[in-house]
Amino acid sequence: MRSSPVSKKVSRLSEFEIECKGLTKRFGAFTAVDGISFGVKRGEIFGFLGPNGCGKSTTIRMILGLLSPSSGSTYVAGMDSAKDSDKIRQRVGYMSQKFSLYDDLTVKENLDFFAGIYGMHGSVRRARIDEVTNLIDLTEFKNALVASLSTGLRQRLALGASILHSPEILILDEPTSGVDPLSRRRLWNLINELANRGRTILVTTHAMDEAEHCHRVTMMQSGHVVCTGSPEDLRANQVEGIVYTIDCHPLFPALSAAESINGVVDASVLGSRLHIRVPTGGISPESICESLRHSGIMVSGFGLGETTLEDVFVAVAGEAS
Ligand SMILES: Nc1ncnc2c1ncn2[C@@H]1O[C@H](COP(=O)(O)OP(=O)(O)OP(=O)(O)O)[C@@H](O)[C@H]1O
Ligand SMILES: [Mg+2]
What we know:
The chain contains 10 helices and 14 strands. It has 321 residues and is an alpha/beta fold.
């Protein structure tokens, strides 16, 4: 890329392909996004995590230049979102949370329609539609009406439609929302495949377990960033204490009993077991089991557990509120 020291319109050089700096959005008296900063590095899958209403989609709208920040700034590929939104949108594939497909058109007709919007023509357009249909693995459904597709297949098609123009940056707002575990896995395989092809990907979810697919994540709560790092770093450095798993029955009464035990920092149900966090050197697992038995719970064993990203979120979001 050519650059000139005297040029007035020089893109910012940054290690980040997407960057938010002190980004704030107020709607009247309500602050939806409150001075957040994070950066997405070139070629990484970056998870943007947080519960409903924490400000993920609002942040994305500001990154794309669809919404003006109240203060702070965002940059995409070195361009200021507030000034260069048209150029940014050419470089970005955006799958919005409510991506609109046309139910009464087939898979192929939908892709053809979106390719037209991106200004693609002739043999290039046909070849790219075939390539994307193959990549999202919908070739056998190419003549099926979208109305007949499952949510998982629709989400794959929506992702395909957002990458027709071969963008180098992808912003995917809850691509796995409402899809079953198998379809979720296929969507993540697809996201990984796109990252392997060199794309930079920002993806939102409220499912903490999905963060395991990301190189790095930012966790957000009520408009604030509560932590940023790789899943491994966050698990190792953001949560103190030891996790025990306890096999017991019945599970949900056991959970409320565990929550009231002195010395238990956090308790949750993970699969068919209780997942309990205690401070290092704190209450022993034997004492926890004893207390549970006193509450009428049948305990059949315990073991050491592993910190999950949900533990991280509960710990950091609790500290931040
Ligand atoms: N145009 C608007 N006017 C007023 N409030 C808004 C507007 N857009 C968003 N909000 C509010 O800002 C907050 C953040 O919304 P946002 O859609 O960014 O959350 P989110 O993290 O994407 O949530 P979800 O996981 O449910 O998609 C919410 O309380 C929402 O009601
Ligand atoms: Mg949202």
